[in-house]
Amino acid sequence: MASSLNLKSVVVCVPENMIYSKGKPCPSSMRLTGKARSRALSAKFMGQPIITNTTKLQDETGLCSSKTSIHAEASICISRSMQWWKKNLKPNMIEIHSAQELLNSLLSAGDALVVVDFYSPACGGCRALHPKICQIAEMHPNAIFLKVNYDKLKTMCQALQIHVLPFFRFYRGAEGQVCGFSCTNATINKFKRALSKHGNERCSLRPPKGLDELELTNLVSSSQIWF
Q: What pTM, to 2 d.p., does this model score?
């Protein structure tokens, strides 16, 4: 789904040297009036129509004016291809949209290893690491990778004491959180070692622990979850 950046009014001033040299007569197409003139000046900006707000393109002598103001109303969409955090996601990679969804995902994971990936679309390190995390997720289909967008869930992340990105937390069944650390492309081996250490098969008779008591308390006090 595309992210929208709404622009109510964009004013573009076009210098005369980008149209016609100052002092030269405007071509006949620019002297049109009424509907014919509107058609001649019609254009599109980012796929949306541009609405010209000029009353004249020439002065009384028939010469081109020095500037032409164009008012464009448009909605600029950032295409999915630009949203790197949505690229190459695997079936075991899940986007989290709320604190309650994070809590439910951890409690319903059973004994499966859960890796919580805290990222930001504006984080260069997160973007560089994303393709490798996708490859690792594909190689470990039994592990669950939960992606948390820091920008959209900032209050929740602060309650969980996330202060640096990219950041990863590993959870495993009744043990709860088994490790947490920041990682980049240069230190990807740290991630692989943690995955190897905590990703082995196991069976616990106790239910999954999920978040610890302090984290739950912080989430409740910040109104992120309710009991």
A: 0.65
Which own/partner contact pairs does 174-181 have at CB distance under 8 Å and 24+ positions apart? Answer: 174/111, 174/204, 174/206, 174/207, 174/208, 174/209, 175/204, 175/209, 176/208, 176/209, 176/210, 176/211, 176/212, 177/211, 177/212
Strand ranges (E), the chain: 3-15, 44-45, 48-49, 51-52, 67-78, 93-96, 113-119, 144-149, 167-172, 176-182
- 121-159: per-residue pLDDT in tens? 999 999 999 999 999 999 999 999 999 999 999 999 999
Catalytic-role residue among 64, 123, 157, 183: 123
* Count of C-beta atoms within a 10 Å radius of residue 28: 8
- Which tens digits make up the pLDDT trace of 171-192? 999 999 999 999 999 999 999 9
**The one catalytic residue among 13, 26, 64, 126:** 126
Q: Rounded distance, CA 151 to CA 180, Å?
A: 20
CB 119 within 8 A of CB 148: yes
Say which residue, 7 or 81, is predicted with more confidence. 81
134 is catalytic: no
